[in-house]
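Entry for the shared binder. Reason: the reviewer on the internal report wants the predicted structure included alongside the sequence.
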Amino acid sequence: MDVDEILKRYDAGERNFQGVNLQEAELTNANLRGADFSNADLRQTRLGKTNFNQACLREANLSEAILWGIDLSEADLYGAILREADLTGAKLVQTRLEKANLIKASLCGANLNSANLSGSLLFEADLRPSSNQRTDLGYAALTGADLSYADLRAASLHHANLDGAKLCRANLSLTIQWGDLATDLSGASLQGADLSYTNLNSAILRKANLQGADLTGAILTDVDFQGAIMPDGTVHD
């Protein structure tokens, strides 16, 4: 099934495109809202600015896909493979990305408001969103990820692995926008992470591991460090 046929069938009311193979296809600026592409092969596709709002892409393979400005709001990408995908400027509002593979993916400028990335793999990903968002990154693997200058106020990063991650000048402070909600880093691993000049005002870092982390110039007002392992290896009371 090629792109033209998919668009023709979609216009005729069909929504089931499970398992379709569109590897290296170009499907930009299209409307596929609510379509089912679960288990589809979309490797190296070009889907820039396509509307996949409320679509199902569970366990689809989008490795190395070009997804600039794509609308995946409220879409289901549970277990999807987005390794090295370019999601620059993508709209991922309330998107399900649990257990997704986003290793080395670019999410620079993406809107992740209320997105769920719990348990996802984000090794060396570029995750520098442009606005504060209640993103769920609980238990996510963010080893070596670049979150420099990221605004992650009110994000949930509990038990996330941020070893060696770059968080220089990131904002993880309390925000009144979500009702005085604090950023949750409880139980997170931040060994060797760059937290220089990061705003951690009122953040929750209970039992977090900060051994070897760089906190130079970080704002640490009212941070909850109870039981946390500090950069020098001591445990905070």
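Summary line for the report: The radius of gyration is 19 Å.
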